[in-house]
Amino acid sequence: xxxxxxxxxxxxxxxxxxxxxxxxAINASAQQxxxxxxxxxxYQEGQSKALxxxxxxxxxxxxxxxxxxxxxxxxxxxxxxxxTWDIVASGSGSAARxxxxxxxxxxxxxxxxxxDFLPNLAGDYCVGGDVFSTVxxxxxxxxxxxxxxxxxxxxxxxxxxGKRSYRKGVAGALEPALMADGxxxxxxxxxxxxxxxxxxxxxxxxxxxxxxxVWWSSGAQHAQLMKDGEVDMITGxxxxxxxxxxxxxxxxxxxxxxxxxxxxxxxxxxxxNKDLAMKFLAEISKPQYQAEFTKYxxxxxxxxxxxDLGTIDAAYAKKLPSHPDNAKNQLxxxxxxxxxxxxxxxxxxxxxxxx
Amino acid sequence: MTVIAAPNAEGLRRDAAVERLQLFxxxxxxxxxxxxxxxxxxxxxxxxxxxxxxxxxxxxxxRRMLVQPSYGRAFSLTxxxxxxxxxxxxxxxxxxxxxxxxxxxxxxNICMIAVMLPFWxxxxxxxxxxxxxxxxxxxxxxxxxxxxLWEAPLPLVxxxxxxxxxxxxxxxxxxxxxxYSSMRAIDRDYLxxxxxxxxxxxxxxxxVFLPLSLPGLLAGSLIVFILCLGFYVTPAxxxxxxxxxxxxxxxxxxxxxxxxGAASSLGVVLFVLTGLILYAASxxxxxxxxxxxxxx
Lengths: 355, 296
Prior knowledge:
heterodimer, A: about 350 residues, alpha/beta, D-Maltodextrin-Binding Protein, domain 2, 2 domains, 16 helices, about 45% helix, disordered N terminus, B: about 300 residues, MetI-like fold, 13 helices, about 0% strand
């Protein structure tokens, strides 16, 4: 009996000791472990090699990487009160909406230095990590050297006969339509914000509808469509086309009238290591990291200084969306417009598609 | 008899009660599992569909479905695609099941394995395989043009055609299995009797065999139809963005509104509509008999 009691209390002691130990371990590692979540695939692989791991090394911390499908996953965690991520990678639009909704923390720009950033690539809740473009791409086998040069050409099925593919979602789908309809790039969001603007753009897309063979919904899909020669002309994200072109796909694209957009990093409200996350974001926003990332995919740096370091090959730099020569011909995505009008525009777009 | 039974009647009753409890306990874990993994989450989603962004009771998610015509079209397209898939499955599957049921057991079993084989491959893989076969410069179009069967590439995929091809391929075994088993159960003597009474083989088929196999056919069709209603991957991959079924619309709405209520309201409506169709079907045919094991 006595023996039993003794062994019982010994077990309890061991258990308590173990608990104390594991708490200690958590506390000790909490000071230096940061959890980052991104989209996986070749994109995150590039981020990991160029940004995350080198920055973690420089700061002397342990970095844990996870993969998710998008900000909706964070929303679930936030609702459950179980945010385990310190930094989330996101598209600019979803991050802006998530910020407006209140599940992201404001970024501390006293810590993160963005004075050398291209304009409009750092928001209250999200700091730009890379710049990409929604471009007009075409099949070089169909059109040879005489490819389309503008959105007006994309809509011109007489001059450029062939199957089109266009985005199934409304994001980035209305701006080209308005430009094809004759609206100058710098007036596009003005028109879209005015009454009747969204309808005008959708009417223009509807005009092209009979020639659209596929409404694409992912980057992997639009790249594959060009690789298979399934369509002759398409919209899509420039980096994806470069990847399949390297694989032998007959595809070329232009930055003319393209839509400049960016991916960014945010800190969720309730992140376990908020202060460290800010420091980490400051580190990966430095030009040397940004220059390194371009080696993995043709997405450009948000920090202009990255071009001055000389580590990006000059010829290669001209292929990047944020290169000054390319950026000047593009329309930068207006996030405020999306926060205000996306739901309304999406409903109208969906109605047009299902007609 | 009663005199002998009386002393232990109490004990027998207790034994029976204990046995019932034990049987119930055996089923308990399964019942619990269904409640925890099915009824609670589905009920929760049902509840969410009546809440707005602020968490208050609201019918806005249902109102949106009425106001925007695209939702109605997604529902009618879902039923149209499911109906067409079921019809094609019947046309292809019934004769195949008939041939199989007439084969000797051994040969039929080998053929059944061939029918079942697609089940062992992931739905996603099979769907992408169709994409490779059907696209503009895919195997089928390339060969068709080379052999001079047609001149310009046929629009086989990125539309309703491709979606139906993919869905029929996936759903066919679900039709063949119940039809085959109900055909196997038909006593051959009935057909002999029909022949004996002067019916030609065709007449015997229409008057005897077909009605006896009908319960299996209806059960199979119902399974196919209902499974089709929830399809997501196949229309997403093979539909070219033109075949937006309810499940695809749910995914779009989740991305767009970041709101479970908006998406679950679609699920609720699909659930109710499916229930109504089942109810209507049960008025027409005796469902319980169909689902209770065909013609046994």
